[in-house]
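User: I'll paste a sequence; please echo it back and then give the predicted structure.

Assistant: Echoing your sequence first, then the prediction.
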Amino acid sequence: MQIYKVGGAVRDRLLGIPVTDIDRVVVGATAEEMLALGYRPVGSDFPVFLDPKTGDEYALARTERKSGRGYGGFVFHASPEVTLEEDLIRRDLTINAMAEDDQLNLTDPYHGQRDLEARVLRHVSPAFAEDPLRVLRVARFAARYAGLDFKVAPETMELMRQLSDSGELEALTAERSWKEISRALMEDQPQVFIEVLRECGALKVLLPEVDALFGVPQPEAHHPEIDTGVHTLSVLEQAALHKQPLTVRWACLLHDLGKGLTPEKDWPRHIAHEHTGLKLIKAVNERFKAPKDCQELALLVGQYHTHGHRALELKASTLLDLLQSFDVYRRPQRFEEFVVACEMDARGRKGLEQRSYPQADYLRGAANAARGVAVQPLLEKGFKGPELGEAIKRERLKVLKAYKDAAS
């Protein structure tokens, strides 16, 4: 029995960056031997075991054979006869197909170290094309290591194009797709994920609503970059630079989908795109079964982001309606995420990345003013039921008018 660290742990150590996850493969052992040593089995697809003391995962070396469509369409075979090289060849990229023992002796049959040094993301074998999920994984790695100047190898990009054209991407489950998309959006340069998907043709399959934004012009006075797709990538880039959470990044990606529906005769204006885009945002949310908080914020940002930009001009009554829509009294964090998403949208424009955004503090101040209305005095005056609700609304409107007057 021989145990090796494999994959990301080896890759990141060689790159000199922190190792977060450690995968281990066991060569020359049977499941019965692992059980006899006290390891606990987990997973139904292939033999993985947990160390009884540390809880670390150990997978038996295995081979795989394509048996159907999609990510799950594989048959795995694990036995003591499977070699380390046979286990490594089934992996996606050469930089993920290296192993090392406890003495840091490197096993690198597919030249992963060479590709690390050349900053290349290259597939290990033609079997790469058997798993459609690898298109998303490679795009995610491109986003992760963009700051180190990694690029996708041309021959790997060609395989990704073939996969995108094959219909295999449509066999991916919502859960697996969302796992890759959400992880990619949280990388340092998530816009690269979208760029790579677009380059290989996967974006028009997975996110046609986003793909449709490229080539759609916007008024140059507000959008020096002009192209709506380019703007969307810039907004996403700003969200990453400002360390925003997944909810905000997802909303940033989807906020302008309505512009893809504008008839060409109306370009570069996009009247009511906030409302026309809602059905598209809802469709994308449902396609990937995005978490509820991501879904809600994406819809709210899509509908109200232009309100955010015009916050200083809004009437007190419109401002109150906006705050009510976000339920700022019970969901203050959601409104804060809306505010920062609007700021990312304002900064995601060519040459305007450092612009000030006074609307943010103005909106925060308005929310605090509305929250400051005390309910108890109204109860003491005898208001209750629907009348109490109307009385609270009148008081909030009053304080918002005062707030607006003081700010102007």
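The longest helix spans residues 385-407. The chain has four domains: 1-110, 119-206, 222-368, 372-408.
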